Every structure is written in C-alpha cells, then in structure tokens.
Amino acid sequence: MSKLPNVRPSIFSTMSQLASEYHAINLSQGFPNFPVDERLIEITAKLTHKNVHQYMPMAGYPPLLQKIAELTEKQYNRTVDPNTEILITAGATQGIFTAIQALIKTGDEVLVLDPSYDSYEPSILMSNGIPIRISLEDDYTVNWTTIKQACHSKTRMIIINNPHNPTGRIFTQSDIEALEGILEHYPNLLLLSDEVYEYITFEQKHISANSREKLISRSIITSSFGKSFHITGWKIGYLIAPENLMNEIKKVHQFMVFSVNSLSQVAISDYLDIVQLDEIASFYQKKRDYFKQLLTPTRLELLPCEGTYFQIASYAAISNENDVDFCKRLAKNFGVAAIPNSTFYADDTDLKHIRFCFAKTNETLEAAAKNLTSL
C-alpha cells in the first residue's frame, strides 16, 4: 500500500522529457546551464588530492559552520552558534524533509501557501501530519486574514517560501508583521522559512526570518548553496534553527544521511573566502531584465519578478487552453518547455500562467524568445 497514493509523476520530469523528445529549449527546470565559477572548479580540483574524502562530523565541516555563522551575522545581523544552531544538509529539500519529520507528529496541521514547492506536502504526509493548502490571491499576494482563520490549536507549522518559487514575489514588511502577529497569537506554532533564493533578489532584498527577533526562536530557516552558487547538482544546503529545535532535527538527520559530502563542504568553505555574494543578485537581475526585453515582442504578459530566477507569464491573450495543455503544445509546436503553474496548487488552480526559468545563457534565452514570438 502506497504511503503517497496521490503523488503524481513530477511535472518537471514530464516537461523535460517533452523538451528532449521535441528538441525544445528547456526553460522548465530550475537549474542554470552556464558554467560554474572557474575559481570554485579550481578549488575543488586541488582538494581532490587532499585528505578530504572521509566522513565529516554529523552536523557539518566545522570551518564551514563557522563561516555560515559569520555570513549570517554579516547579512542579517544575527548571531548564531555554529556548534548548536546550524546543520549542513544534502540539499535544501532534504533539510525541509528532515525538519518536518523531526517536528511534525501525527495529526499536526501544517499550513502551506499555494502555489507551492512540490516537496512540502509529501514531507508532511510522511510524518502523518495534515497539510492545509491555502491559495494566495490571484496576484500572488497573501491574504493574512485567511491564514489566521485557518490556524487553531492543532496547527503546528506554517511553511513560507521567500523569495517565492514559482511566482518570483517577496514578502513585504506588512507581510512579515502579519506573520509575526499570527505566531504571537499561537505560541506553539513553528515557522519553516524556505529561503533558498535569498541571494537572488532585485529592486529590494527579501526580509529574512533571520533578521526578525520575534521569529528567530520559532523558525527553521533553510538555505541552498546549490541555488546561490549555480551548483544545483552538488545538493548541499543548510538549516539554521534554535538549539532546542535543532537537537530534534539532528536526531532525524543522523539516521537519514548522517553527514553530507565531504569534498563539497570543504570546497564551499574555501570558496566563501573569495566569493562576493552581493554580485549574485546583480548577475540575475541582468538576466531577468534581458529576458523581459526579449519577450517584449511576444503576446505574453509578464508578471512582477522580485526575486528567484523564475518569470511568470500569462498567456490569457493567446489561448483559453488549460495551462498543462498549453505547455505541452508550447514544447511540441514552438520548441520551448515551460512549467504550468496549476501544478503547484492542491486544486490545480488555472490562472493561464506558466513559469520560465531564466537562469540560462543569453544564447539560450535569445533562441527561446525567437520561438515565443511565433505564438
């Protein structure tokens, strides 16, 4: 008997398969297709000849933990203990799964804001929790009155994704204050703040849970080196949480993966000494703006993109098809693969929106835009 009977084949696999079958330009999956920083390649190459190939401590490579603590203080003015409040994970998804397994018990309710990353609900179900999926407004803002009305004594956790995948939106000051008000009203409520795109924001930076005194003691915050450094295949991220919560998370982590890839931990630790994280946002903002410029001649309407490397577009002026069929036709007939936004909702809400990933070379974006002008 399946533990996840309603989990369908991933839309990412479906669209990538279509892209391969029809030789379409793949703007569906969220991974870059440009080279990794040559400095990181050189660091990694040198490390292969050193003694860094055995198990690391369960929580992570101590120098890397220390550098994450220093980075957190620099970026968010938060002091964290590298020995008790940080955990290196095998990607952010593993971190999210581990935190939910550790902290959610049978019957606990977890609020998920749709459209949402597809790993949240299965992680909740595997812990015998109850996912409560609540849709954002059609402009992808949050109705906090609806969120508060959904909370009660059995609500154990709220999951937020800021900056937000798939929409590219970031929370405003009033959003964060509303969230703080809800947690203040429900003292047993935890926050799982998925901030994997924290360094990919544009006109304004996102407001991290790391920077909010009212949230810190109740928050598990997940970050991703894979997203920040264009190394998604390395599958390495980290969690930050207060010691009482982290102790429970570590209990699960040690029996799930025990420790994360040693070579990647040392390489990233050394790379943090030379990389300028502030350059990441500028790099992707140029990508966003160039992609927007390229799509100006098309009939697609682009929605605001405040962060991440995803662009939502409305095709309502082009077709009345449902978004899944439209994306399939887009790949087959126009040679561009995108993701239908309805697949990020529990109820398959179809707003005629699709998601493009612009973390691609300019040549790839140009070729895709040329095809999209034929729509």
Task: Tell me about this structure.
The chain is of the alpha/beta class. Helices cover 39% and strands 15% of the residues. It contains 14 helices and 13 strands. It has a seven-stranded mixed sheet with strand order 2-8-7-6-5-3-4, with helices on both faces. A four-stranded antiparallel sheet has the order 9-10-13-12. It has a two-stranded parallel sheet with strand order 1-11. Helix 4 runs parallel beside helix 5 (120-126) and helix 4 packs across helix 10 (243-256).
Give the total of beta strands.
Answer: 13
Helix and strand pattern: HEHHEHEHEHEHEHEHEHHHEEHEEEH
Strand order of the largest sheet: 2-8-7-6-5-3-4
Helix count from the secondary structure assignment:
14
As a whole number of angstroms, the C-alpha radius of gyration is: 20 Å
Helix content: 25-40%
List unreliable stretches of 5+ residues.
Answer: none
SS-derived structural category: alpha/beta
Strand content: 5-15%
Q: What's the average pLDDT? A: 96
Distance N terminus to C terminus?
45 Å
Major sheet attributes: 7 strands, mixed
Shape: globular
Keywords:
375 residues; single chain; alpha/beta; 15% strand; 7-stranded mixed sheet
